[in-house]
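ingest -> validate -> predict -> emit
validate: passed (alphabet ok, no gaps, 266 aa)
predict: started
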Amino acid sequence: MTTGDELLLLAMVPGRQRIRIRSDNRLRYALRISELANLCHAGRTAVGRRRIEVLDTRPVEDRRLNNVLQGLGAATPPPGLKDWLRRTPRSLTVEYLSRLEDQKAVRVRRWRDSSGRTRNDILSLDMPRRQALLTRLDSVVRSGSARSTADRDVTLAVLAQAAGLAPAAYPGLRGIIDRRRMAALAATHRLTPAAAGAVPVADVELAAALTTGADVLTRQLLGELSDLYADFTTGGHDLGHGLDSGGWSEGGAGGTGHHGDGHADW
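emit:
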């Protein structure tokens, strides 16, 4: 699984009558950022203040990440992180749902409603696989520090918090302490303006991006993701009405991505 697969698996909340997806409006941007994080961790790309640079065009194991890598490599000039993130496909969450289906992590029923729109019902979820993922998340969240933990797990925890998935990972009253820990972990990874200004420019910034490690990378990605969410915030809601989630149904409080009848409209 890529970090994107894991984010979507975390976002799925089993219930008595249906499986919901939390934070649908935010999720596709977190999925997009996770792709870049995976490529950076693999040494294929680097993120500077002004652009995303492809450092190595050799294929990675995952086909989708390869496609993202090739797209970045073909872009002239290389895109900036903010512009690239804003061009996130509206279909991205649906694509990741299909990936989880291919991996036998979920079972999905697709059907068309009277208007011709395709809906997706998540019929079952691989709970042992999700629990194993939560165990990895716990190793970061409950340690009180991102040190001595896997880079990928730190990135997963921080992006999950940014996308509003803490209640999905740690629900109810029992999860209050862990949700607070998760928020504190993400807060330590916010890239302040002063720190951002300290990053070198031009070609030197690419070398710096390679040597600063996963911690600074995660801060930078989180900063851009948080700025994007803030740009679309209106009236204290998660995202403004102008941000079309691409055919998803309106969920209840917390953004489940489902109607009250338990159907997801993707």
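Confidence is low (pLDDT under 50) at residues 191-213, 234-265.
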